[in-house]
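Thread: quick sanity check before group meeting

JM: Hey all, I'm pulling together slides for Thursday and realized we never actually wrote out the predicted structure for the chain we discussed last week. Dropping the sequence here so it's in one place. If anyone has concerns about the input, flag it before I start.
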Amino acid sequence: MKGESTLLNKGYVHWLNVIGRVRAGTNVASTEAQMRVELQQWLRSHWGEMSTNERLDLLKQTLNLGPGGAGITSMRQQYGRWLHILMMVAGFVLLIVCANVATCYSCVGWSGGSRPR
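JM (edit): ok, ran it. Output follows.
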């Protein structure tokens, strides 16, 4: 994923990850075939917007269904650690806010004043 050969740096490469659910008992192979047909129809609906090279690549476009119960693995591996750090920082900030609010209420109580509304 790093370096000049990465797909992320190539302007002509596109991909889309979609997560969805199929009903219980659904034939995954037939659903995948139907979705491939719909993908090809959508791509052909944009025929006029495509360059000659894009038109040649039209038949190479594909779609694969796979189990997504655990989410998109590559995203989880790439961002999982940082999301845990973000959650810990957010929890720490909330702890500080709660301590500040508790301090404010304690100060008002000790001074004999009324609580802010």
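AS: nice. The mean pLDDT is 79. The chain is about 55% helix and 0% strand.
JM: adding both to the slides.
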